[in-house]
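FORM 12-B: Structure-to-Sequence Request
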């Protein structure tokens, strides 16, 4: 399992501040984000717009990062604000 934390506008989009998600061995961050988009359609919209940053264990990583059991993913909107779709 990995812990996923949503901040600011992403928390509103998903409707939760934190969730636990099972991951298979070899799952990349990109694949995990895809799975979140399937679970939360409004998150998918935000992802398509590229309007957030992802960190794993408090470090920014690429989408090719291989997830490990116990990782903590933080999904953060742009630091200067902005809108995602209709939500500001």
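FORM 12-B RESPONSE
SEQUENCE OUT:
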């Amino acid at each position: 399992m990995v812990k996923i934390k949503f901040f600011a506008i992403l928390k509103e989009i998903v409707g939760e501040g934190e969730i636990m998600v099972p991951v298979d061995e070899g799952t990349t961050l990109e694949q995990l984000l895809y799975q979140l988009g399937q679970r939360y359609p409004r998150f998918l919209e935000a992802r398509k717009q590229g309007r957030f940053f992802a960190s794993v264990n408090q470090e920014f990583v690429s989408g090719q990062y291989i997830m490990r059991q116990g990782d903590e993913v933080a999904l953060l909107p742009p630091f200067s604000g902005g809108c995602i779709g209709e939500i500001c």
